[in-house]
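User: You have something folded?
Assistant:
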Amino acid sequence: MLLRTHASLKTAVVASLSATGFAVAYAVLGTEPRPLTALYIRVGPALALISWTLADLRGTDLETILDWGLFQCMVWPVLMPWYLKRRYGRGAWALIAMFLALLLAPRLAEAIRATP
């Protein structure tokens, strides 16, 4: 079950699971992923989480910042935990842990392929 948030996390979860699935499939096959697939494995989950924060912004005072999406894309490793902490208070720690798991799962699956 997903945590209660103002926007749905389903898209971010699906993006992370599919990227992880691709990484595991290539690890099992023992081949390098195609360039576009490798880009999706590395960037897809982060972009999905950035998109989630943009959808979650609706109804907040930060919604008035016009370039929030660009700002978020440029400094997301710092800005995303700050936003979660500001928006959800104590409940943010569970979201931060979930976001880390969603971001690291494809990379860990990809690391399996790199080990001999």
